[in-house]
Amino acid sequence: MSSSPSSDYEPMFTRPGEASVAPRHLIPPQGSLPATARQIVEDETILDGNARLNLATFVSTWMDDDAKQVYTSSFDKNMIDKDEYPQTAAIEDNCWHMLANLWNAPDASGAIGTSTVGSSEACMLGGLAFKRRWQQARRAAGKDTSTPNLVMSSAVQVCWEKFCNYFDVEPRYVPISEEHKTLDGHDLATYVDENTIGVVAIMGVTYTGMYEPVAAIAAALDEIQKDTGLDIPIHVDGASGAMIAPFLQPDLVWDFRLERVHSISTSGHKYGLVYPGLGWVVWREEKWLPEDLVFKVSYLGGEMPTFALNFSRPGAQVLLQYYLFLRLGFEGYRAVQQESQDVAKYLSAGIAGLDAFELWNDGSDIPVFAWRLKDGHTKNWTLYHLQDRLRMRGWLVPAYPMPADLEQITVQRIVVRNGLSMDLAADLLDAITAEVAHLDALTAPMPSDHPDSAFHH
Ligand SMILES: Cc1ncc(COP(=O)(O)O)c(C=O)c1O
Hints:
By secondary structure, the protein is α/β, with parallel strands linked by helices. The chain has a domain at 69-324: Type I PLP-dependent aspartate aminotransferase-like (Major domain) (Aspartate Aminotransferase, domain 2). The protein contains 10 helices and 13 strands. The chain has helices spanning 34-45, 65-72, 86-102, 119-140, 158-166, 214-228, 245-248, 316-352, 383-392, 422-440; strands at residues 112-116, 149-153, 170-174, 196-202, 234-237, 261-267, 279-283, 295-299, 302-306, 357-359, 368-373, 399-401, 410-415. Strands 1-7-6-5-4-2-3 form a 7-stranded mixed β-sheet, with helices on both faces. Strands 10-11-13-12 form a 4-stranded antiparallel β-sheet. A two-stranded antiparallel ribbon has the order 8-9. Helix 8 packs across helix 10 (422-440). 41% of the residues are buried. The structure holds pyridoxal-5'-phosphate.
């Protein structure tokens, strides 16, 4: 008796589902073999850039094999199921306590914190705590609460614009300039008033990687308090820097050593070294997180406080963070971050050595740096053309305009992460050198079709 051959045996790329264009907007009426569906998904994503060569992102693109095992054995866990996964909940608790200590909370047992899906959610929680505390104080004093504002640099990451938009807070941007490349306390008194819910200080400005001098901002706010009585708190957006400064610049005072710093957020998935999907926020003292923002979920027959925008989210990332804290320890994190910084400085020195460029900064804060074309170097090409040339070789190195008031300046930026080895960096430098030589050899201007798009990383 003969049977028709299983489609498993049909020649490659001729099986049902493979020899046709996969539907784009409609769920297909029939399913396909798992291997076929997988083939299509993997083939379609071949067209993505290579994550390891993506020097635009701050987010981890490499973890070791043991981490992958931790991931595979836990990707079914929902972080919100605290009653069902009490150990995962306890590990989350351990992790933010570790961070409270890392960030020099005077008493980590009196701090409060949580994991989030990333820095954006963590920043929003920090902003919400500011807003609610300000409202409570204003109501208690019989004052108007209709016009809260938040003061920050014009170079904040887009999550702060979203926070202000979504939660009805007026954003007050202090413009950065050639003299004041970051928010540094200069002129702060003209921006804050009785409706200011807080000031955001960024440890690792997204555009350039530079630290904002949190201690100088705190000192400026101390002066303002002396003059006006206004006691304005700081949230440190340490998306990148809060996982670099404790290891590479331990003497820099930016964290809970400053009493005015009420809360700090970071991305576990950036220099926390975990794959995407993890952020953290910690308040110096429990009192800075208004109780009426906190919800309770059931936990071991009791109740566990949660403060989050999401309900369900992956628990695996939290376990990966714990894995890394144990695997690397303080010394391991220091060594990994130092290596990234060495690579960043090697690259920035190499780029500064090319006639065409001038550095904006050199990667000595977080391992991120930006550069621009020297004035008058060429009329034939821009950094957008260099970006395109590098992309042809697989390297993703974004060029973009600086924020408001400096938008006429275009910079290009490299984010060095664990996984960009010195050896790969040498190849990148060779590629940049060769492409600059190619562009410099042009005898007429390249067409310019790059919209001045805002940069949202
Ligand atoms: C300073 C800063 N804050 C917030 C964010 C948003 O972080 P996430 O992507 O983790 O939401 C970023 C992302 O690059 C950032 O650089």
